[in-house]
Write a structure and sequence with these properties.
The protein is built from eight helices and nine strands. The protein has about 200 residues and is α/β, with parallel strands linked by helices. It has one domain (about 5-190): 3-Layer(aba) Sandwich (Rossmann fold), CATH 3.40.50.300. It has a five-stranded parallel β-sheet with strand order 2-7-1-8-9, with helices on both faces. Helix 1 (about 20-30) packs across helix 8 (about 170-195). The structure holds adenosine-5'-triphosphate (ATP) and ligand LQESDW3C. Ligand LQESDW3C binds near residues 17, 83 and 84.
């Protein structure tokens, strides 16, 4: 008989910054009724970002406190800012809804895979360097932040081969359609196991 954990998937959206991970994850997540698990971050919100929607923005002091209590299941430092996912948030979301999604860098995706094994499905979203740069400019992200993010582009792209699925993102509607279909197959398998 299947263990209840076999029916809980963690869909992890990863890939280079600006590739479209958030846009796609939120669209697919809302179509399929998945619960989003938000990261905690110590950086300041950028224009247009909303606390509780883009991240839980917290102070470095609170982050340290939570980290010292072992709250974060994975935690990374990027450009002097800390980012992490709380174990409790994943557990609570599992209790409310069997399947969840989150958006992290390659390091986080690999860490979650190590911890949760076959429950984790890594979805790699990508576009070429010029395209992700242009998208970030269009969003109004400052030149130095874009430059810092682009310095990780090649490393981010190298995670492609480790992910369960990879999707080029140029035509947004097409990418969302492809990913929705892919995730529906996991959810269908999930329903069949329940029958
Ligand atoms: N296929 C696409 N065509 C054109 N624009 C797109 C496409 N996909 C996403 N975008 C736009 O690109 C920008 C970056 O997308 P998004 O924020 O989803 O990327 P991300 O990978 O989560 O990176 P970031 O960390 O910068 O948020 C957004 O303005 C989004 O609307
Ligand atoms: N491993 C993790 N990576 C995370 C987490 N939250 C966000 N991120 C990734 O960090 C970079 C930088 O983000 P930015 O919003 O400041 O530009 C980006 O790739 C995010 O996806 C996390 O909890 N763990």
């Amino acid at each position: 008989m299947a263990d209840s954990r076999d029916r809980e998937f963690i869909f992890v959206f990863t890939g280079p910054d600006g590739s479209g991970r958030k846009t796609i994850a939120d669209s697919v997540g809302s179509t399929l009724g998945l619960t989003k698990v938000l990261s905690y971050a110590t950086r300041k919100p950028r224009p247009g970002e909303v606390n509780g929607q883009d991240y839980h923005f917290i102070t470095p002091e609170l982050y340290e406190e939570l980290d010292a209590s072992g709250d974060f299941i994975e935690s990374v430092t990027i450009n002097s800012n800390q980012y992490g996912i709380r174990d409790n948030d994943i557990r609570r979301s599992f209790r409310n809804n069997g399947c969840i999604y989150l958006i992290v860098n390659a390091e986080g995706a690999d860490m979650l895979k190590q911890i949760y094994g076959t429950q984790v499905v890594r979805l790699f979203i990508y576009a070429d360097r010029g395209t992700v740069e242009e998208r970030q400019r269009q969003e109004g992200i400052s030149g130095d932040v874009i430059e810092e993010r682009l310095s990780r582009y090649e490393t981010d792209m190298a995670a492609h081969a480790r992910c369960e699925h990879a999707f080029e993102n140029y035509d947004l509607a097409h990418t969302v359609f492809e990913i929705t279909n892919t995730l529906e197959q996991y959810l269908q398998r999930n329903l069949e196991e329940r029958d």
